[in-house]
Each structure stands twice: as structure tokens, then as C-alpha cells.
Amino acid sequence: MPLQRLNWALATQRSVEIWVRRDDLIDTHLSGNKFYKLYYNLRAAKAAGYKQLLSFGGAYSNHIYALAAAAKAYGFQAVGVIRGERPKYLSPTLQDAEAWGMKLHFVSRTDYRERSSPELRQKLTDIYGDFFEIPEGGANAYGVQGTKALGVAIHRQVKSDYTSVCLASGTANTLAGVAAGLQRAGDLAQKVIGFSVLKDAGDRGFQSLGAQVINYQKAINESTSNWCLINGFHGGGYGKKLPTNMRQFMTGFECETELQLDPVYTAKMCWGVAQLLAKDYWQSGSRLVLIHTGGLQGRRGFDL
Ligand SMILES: *Cc1c(COP(=O)(O)O)cnc(C)c1O
């Protein structure tokens, strides 16, 4: 995917060069980091002879959206287990998913928390038949294998000629994969910075996001230390309406740079980068690569 120079006065003033890796441009629907996270999942499902995929998510989930698009494109049936009761009007995300053939199965928030229970699995099998299960967000070993390929691809574009790679982290599966890919390809000194979009790791039911990165890397027999997680730029927590200052920042950034963001992930990364630039976190002459992980469909859930 193209790497574009960002025209952003805040960075120019500090003589920091910013490049954006446009993974939001992969496809209209099957796009961003969810493309990489699904790739090996779909291959594994196909190799094992599955005809149906099943996964989990909320009403505006980028993962559910990408999964529905991928299932349609590659000839799978798909079931989306959605958090919360079926609303009177489906979100635009779920309307699209349903239109592409995904069956939507709504569960209460309490049941959703127990989504990996054998009971729910049995119930879903009774209703829908056999399926290949992908965890929420596509965050498993196949997901980290796919995002590792993204790390390798970025290395091919920039070699070691950068200071930091920045990305937005939810489960931190992408952070784990990209860091592994970059290091495998030969970048030892530079760091990947994951800007957490969660208020605390408990937002997604993890003990600690850092421990998650280590687990994800272990799952593909990798262990690298070229990454860090930065907290404090979550704007109130996962999927929450952005506070006014962040919303104004997002609008201003989009207007100035002509790059669209989404309020759940990429806006928080850019906000974090802006705060760090203002504090001279990076020396002048630094070169950053920001990964645009997509998610623009999620803008429809917000009054922007
Ligand atoms: C899912 C998502 C992320 C977070 O990816 P993780 O692997 O869960 O950390 C980041 N950006 C966008 C746009 C996403 O949809």
C-alpha cells in the first residue's frame, strides 16, 4: 500500500517527517488491519474444509464488517454473534453485513461476556451447523501472522530509515505482528508504538495489554522487544464519543492533512502523536511511519 508524506504543520514546525502507510486503501470493504488479521484465518478455514465462519463483535465492529465482506468475496457462509439485543434499526455496519449474507445472532451483554463458553458454542452449532470460529477482532495466532506480513511489507518500503512506526491498538494483536515482522526483516533498534484506545486493558477483558503482545508473539514463536504501548490517549474509553477537544482536533487534522480518520482508533493515534510532538518526544530530523489501519466505515456510528 502507498506510503504518503503527511502535510501537517505541527510536525513540520518540529522538523519531524511523517509518512502514512495507507492500509485503509486496500479495498472499499475488506480493508485496514482487519484484512491482514483475516487472511490466514480464512486460509486455515478453507484448508480444514470449513464452509462457514463465525465471529463476534459490536454493532459498529470493523472486524464484523470485514468478515462479512471477506466471506462474501471468498465464498464462505458467515455468522456474526453481536453484543446486545437486536435493535429496532440495525446500525449501517450490520445492515451491510446482513446484505452481504452474514447471519446475525444477537446475545445479551452478559452472554456476550461468556462468548467462549462451550454452552454458547453448542447452541450456535445447533442453530447454524459447523463453523470455523474466529475470536473478536480477529485477534488470534493467524491474526498476528497476518499483521507480521504487514511489518515485513513496511520494512521493504522504508528499510531501517525511520524512527518509530505508530499505530492504534485495541487488542494489540496488530502491534505484536508488526513488531515481529519489522524485527524479522532486520530492524532491530527502531520501535513500534501502540497507542492504546482502551481506558484500561479491562475494557476488552485482558489482564494487561503488554502481556497480550507477548502472548500473541509467542503464538507465532516470536519474541521481540522493539515495541511499546502508550496509554492516556483513549479519550474516555473504547468506542466512546470523543471529548470536544479531541473531536475538534480530529476535524482540524482531517481538514489540514486531507486524511480521514475514524474516532475509535486512528483519531486517537493521531491525537497521541500530536501530544508527543508538542512535548518534543521525537528529535528534529526524526521520521515517523503512521499506519492507517482503516476503520472509516465506523465513522457512521458517530455524529461527526
Ligand atoms: C481493529 C482496529 C485496530 C486495532 O487492532 P488490534 O489488532 O486489535 O490492536 C486499529 N485500527 C483500526 C481501524 C481497527 O479497526
UniProtKB/TrEMBL annotation:
The keyword Repeat does not apply. Residues 9-198 form the Tryptophan synthase beta chain-like PALP domain. It comes from the Bacteria. SUPFAM superfamilies: Tryptophan synthase beta subunit-like PLP-dependent enzymes. The keyword Membrane does not apply. Keywords: Pyridoxal phosphate. It holds the Pfam family PALP. Its cofactor is pyridoxal 5'-phosphate. Belongs to the ACC deaminase/D-cysteine desulfhydrase family. This is 1-aminocyclopropane-1-carboxylate deaminase. The gene is dcyD.
